[in-house]
Amino acid sequence: MPKKTSPKSATISLEIKCGGQKGRLTEVLSVGENRLKVSIASDSYDAQSHARVLRWDGTEWKLLHSLLSVKTKASYASGATAATFAADRAELLRVAIAILGT
Asked: Which pTM value belongs to this model?
C-alpha cells in the first residue's frame, strides 16, 4: 500500500500578536485546493483561549475543527513566535487534512 503524502501547503498570511498575558496567531494558508484559517489564542484564563481551523467556502469562513484544550500557554505570549503555537497548529492541520481527505 503506497504511503499517503501530505498535500502541499503555502502560507498566504501570518499574524502574531502579543500583549500582557495574551498571545494570538492567525494564519491563512492554502492546502491543496482548500483555503484554511488557523486561529489560536492563548490567554491566562483558559476559558478565553481557543484553537480552531476554518475553511473558506467561497463566501465565508466555516468552522472545520477546534481543539478542546489549547497547548500554547499564555505565559509564553510576550515573546511569541510561530514556534510558540506549533503544537496546536500542527494538530489542527493534521485533523483538517484528514477531514477534507486531501
From this structure: 0.85
Q: What is the pLDDT of residues 17-38, one digit of tens each?
A: 887 778 899 999 999 999 999 9
- Residue 45, domain member (yes or no): yes
Domain that holds residue 16: 9-100
User: Model confidence at 83, in pLDDT bands (50, 70, 90)?
Assistant: confident
For the chain, the domain total comes to 1
Q: Which residue has the cell 497548529?
A: 89
